[in-house]
Write the C-alpha cells for this entry.
Amino acid sequence: MSASGRCAQPRQMPAPGPAPARRAGDAPSAALYAPMNTPQASPHRERGLDLVKWLALLSMVLDHLRFLIPGHALLGWGFVPGRLAFPLFCLALAANLARSRPGACGRSEQRHIGALLLFAVLSEPAHDLMLGNAAKFNILISLALGWGVAWSAHALQRGPLLLSALLLAGAVWLNTLLTYGLLGVLLPTLCLLALQRGGAWLALATLTALLANLTPRLGAALLAGQPRDWLIAATCLAALPLGFWLRRTPLPERLRVPAVGRWAYYFYPLHMLAIAAAAWLLRAP
C-alpha cells in the first residue's frame, strides 16, 4: 500500500535488449548540474583549479626572482605579476574547502591544515634568508590562519565559530608581522563565500585583495599617479576574477593540465633556498 492508502502500481521493468543510445539533445545526468561546492560535483580533479594553482606558483616565482639582485630594474617588475599569487592561493584553498562537508574534520582536512602548519614552520628560515630580514612571517602562516577561519565559517557551528574568533584575535595581535595582515587572513573566507554565493561577495573579496596590498607607499604612489603602481593595483583587482574565470571556463578535452599536488609544499621553501643561494653567489667577489 502507498502512503495515501491506494495500492502502489507495480514498477514496469525495461524491455530486454541494449539500452537506447543518448541523443545529442538529451540532458546529462543531474550530477553534472550539482553545485560546484558539493563533493558530488567534483569526482575528478578540476583542471581549471590546477590552472589557478599553476598561475599562483608562476606569479610567486616571478615575484621572488627580484631578490636575486635587489634593485635590478627588470627583475623588479616581477613584483607586478606577483600580486596575483596570494589571492589565487586563497581561491584554491577556498575551492578545496567548498567541496567538503561543512564542519568535516576528516583525514583530508587534517592533512591539509597539518601540511600548512608544518611547512609554515619549515619555510621560515628559507623565507628569512631570501628576504634578508625577519620583518614578516612567510605566506603559509597567513594561509594557515585563513584556512582555520574559512573552515570555521563553512561549519557555522558554535565550537568552530569560537575557534574562528580566537584565530581572528590572534591575527589582529600579529597584524604587523603577518604577510598581508588581518585582511589576508580574511581573504580565504571571502573567497569561500564568493564561490558559494557569488555576486557581491566576489566584489568584496576582490576589493580585499587590493586593500591587503595597499601599503602607505603604494597609496602615496597611486595618489601621485605613478603608472607602475596603478598597474600593481590593477593586477590586485584582476587576480580573483581571473581565477574564477579559469576555474569555470570549459577547457578543451585534449588540454592536459599537470596536477599541483603535495609537491608544491616542498617547492615553496626549496625555491626560496635556491634564490637565496643564487643571490649569495652573485654577491660573492
